[in-house]
Specification:
It is a single chain. The chain has four helices and no strands. The chain has 90 residues and is mainly alpha-helical. It has a domain of 51 residues: Orthogonal Bundle (Arc Repressor Mutant, subunit A), CATH 1.10.10. Helix 2 crosses helix 3 and helix 3 crosses helix 4.
């Protein structure tokens, strides 16, 4: 079986706009909390970024979990756990 060629990271991915969007969204969230105690911020940010990333990768690979896991740099079992957590395992 030939080796799977992993697509190169595009220059667009290196664009700081992704980081800026996360920063701005988190800042807005914290400001909206006002005097309310913030909690589980790390999990909130990871979940908000992880779900669309998984959706896009599964579409990109036409549902091929092995290929999606390879592209993401994680093992297939970890991918399945993440898909299940986000309700994306069909």
């Amino acid at each position: 079986m030939p080796a799977t060629k992993i697509p190169a990271v595009s220059q667009a991915w290196l664009d700081p706009s992704i980081s800026e969007a996360v920063r701005d969204s988190l800042q807005d969230h914290l400001e909206a909390l006002g005097d309310t105690e913030a909690s589980n911020i790390y999990r909130l940010v990871v979940d908000k970024a992880e779900r669309p990333m998984l959706e896009i990768m599964m579409r990109y690979t036409h549902g091929n979990q092995s290929r999606a896991a390879e592209y993401l740099g994680i093992n297939r079992a970890t991918l399945r756990t993440k898909l299940r957590r986000h309700g994306l395992l069909g």
